[in-house]
Amino acid sequence: QLQLVESGGGLVQPxxxxxxSCAASGFNFDYYVIGWSRQAPGKEREGVSxxxxxxxxxxxxxxxxxxxxxRFTISRDNAKNTVYLQMNSLKPDxxxxxxxxxxxxxxxxxxxxxxxWGQGTQVTVSS
Length: 127
Fold this sequence. Notes:
By secondary structure, the chain is mainly β. The chain is about 0% helix and about 45% strand. It is globular. The model has no long low-confidence stretch (mean pLDDT about 95).
C-alpha cells in the first residue's frame, strides 16, 4: 500500500526556517516524481516544488513556484525513501498545510497534479 507521511511542520517566526520531510513506503520510490503542495485557509491548493526521479532522463531535476524560488530547496534521499523541503526566509504568506505527493509525470509539466497524496503537515509563520 502506497503511503506518504509528512513531518517537520510547526510554528516559526517570520524569517525563520523549517525542514519538512516526506517518508514514503509501499512503492518503488526511486522511480516516482515527488512534490510538495500547500493549501492556506480559504485558498486553493498550490503546487510549491517538485523533484524528478533519479532514474528518469531529467535525472532528479527540480521545479519551484515563483513564490518560493530562492527560499525553498527540495531534495531526495533514495536510500531513505525520503524527500525533504528546506524552507528558509519564511513569510506569513507561507502559512498553510503542506502536502507531499507522488506521480510519474516529470516536474517540467506542472507542479499541481499528482496521483497519490499524504495527509499533510501544518506550517504556521507568525510572530
